[in-house]
Design brief:
single chain, binds benzoic acid, about 30% helix, alpha+beta, five-stranded mixed beta sheet
Length: about 220
């Protein structure tokens, strides 16, 4: 079945982009990476999403996350559309965006990566791309996958929040609870015994009493 599952290695595809031909693993290097797909160039929701992604590019860069978009049109179309995206942001209508856009005009990558939306068809009845978000770690393995239909735009602030959680939980034995924001307390992961947790989290562990008597809601201040 096409598509990518958590833990799968990113395919090392070659593709034409608005910043030249790339090999995906070389593009990622040792960084984290985010690949986000779009149904089509010159469409309204996509334009707002790419505008927001461009505004947030410095935040992704601060987190060592390389960004790359994908849409099923040509490089030429992508470059022309980029002018609209910059103008939508109130910037000069130039072709340059702070990340490349993959030209997947034959939808080969979209099929390989399981990105098609069967409910949104082009004029020839062929499915458009859905709004996929793939986040890859520095080991090139898939850490997060979100799939939105073409008709629902994503929240890029939420994607940044998720990246913060992925990066924190990749390196510390914690998990982030509902609606967590950077700086909030985090949860000690269930597999970590209490005695080890006490040593690992010197700022303290706060347990909430529950009717079951089980002490599994273990909070600790976000570790550095
Ligand atoms: C859009 O980007 O606006 C869009 C694209 C395909 C289907 C619906 C909306």
């Amino acid at each position: 079945m096409p598509g990518l599952l958590l833990g799968d290695e990113a395919p090392n595809f070659e593709a034409d982009t608005t910043q030249g031909r790339i090999r995906f693993h070389d593009f990622l290097g040792d960084s984290w990476g985010i690949l986000f797909s779009h149904p089509r160039d010159f469409t309204p929701v996509c334009t707002t999403e790419l505008g927001q992604a461009a505004k947030l590019a410095p935040e992704f860069s601060k987190r060592n996350v390389k960004m790359i978009a994908l849409s099923i049109d040509s490089v030429e179309d992508h470059l022309s559309w980029s002018k609209d995206i910059n103008a939508y942001n109130g910037d000069q209508p130039e072709e340059k965006l702070p990340f490349p856009i993959i030209a997947d005009a034959k939808r080969e990558l979209a099929v390989q990566l399981g990105m098609l939306d069967p409910d949104e068809l082009d004029k020839d009845g062929i499915p458009l791309t859905a709004r996929v978000v793939f986040v890859f770690g520095p080991d090139k393995k898939l850490k997060l996958s979100i799939l939105y239909p073409a008709t629902t735009g994503r929240n890029f602030d939420e994607i940044l929040r998720v990246v913060d959680s992925l990066q924190l939980t990749a390196y510390k034995k914690v998990a982030t609870p509902v609606n967590w924001k950077p700086g909030d307390s985090v949860m000690v992961i269930p597999s970590l015994p209490d005695d080890e947790a006490k040593k690992l989290f010197p700022k303290g562990i706060f347990t909430k009493d529950l009717p079951s008597g089980k002490k599994y809601l273990r909070y600790t201040p976000q570790p550095e």
